Amino acid sequence: MQETASEYFQTRQSNCAQSVALAWKERKDPASIHAEVFATAGNGRAPEGLCGALHAARELVGEPRREQLTERFKEKAGGYAACRDIRRNRIMPCSACVSLAAGLLEELAE
Fold first, then answer.
1. Could you tell me which of 103, 84, 105 has the C-alpha nearest to residue 94?
2. Which residue of 18, 29, 68, 83 has the fewest C-beta atoms within 10 A of its own C-beta?
3. Which residue has the higher pLDDT, 67 or 26?
4. Domain boundaries, given as residue ranges, for the chain
5. 50 CB contacts (<8 Å, ≥6 apart)?
């Protein structure tokens, strides 16, 4: 799923949040997810300033595992969850955030 999300992000003109959602949509029930709802969550515009990829993964994994996903993401992102902090501190590029969030979503949703 990480590769699929990365492909959406790099080649299909999808933002980070949409890329995670579209990869999840391919893996799960295609009719259950509408990636368009994440269209405004890229480029630091996710709620609370979260990384858009993380925001999408949190929404898709659901409540029981939402905090666990966030903490695991932050472990790899220098302790940050906000897009602005990750980018300003050059922790990782957006493409790596997409891959990380998609991988954690796949792992924790099992």
1. 84
2. 29
3. 67
4. 2-108
5. 58, 81, 82, 83
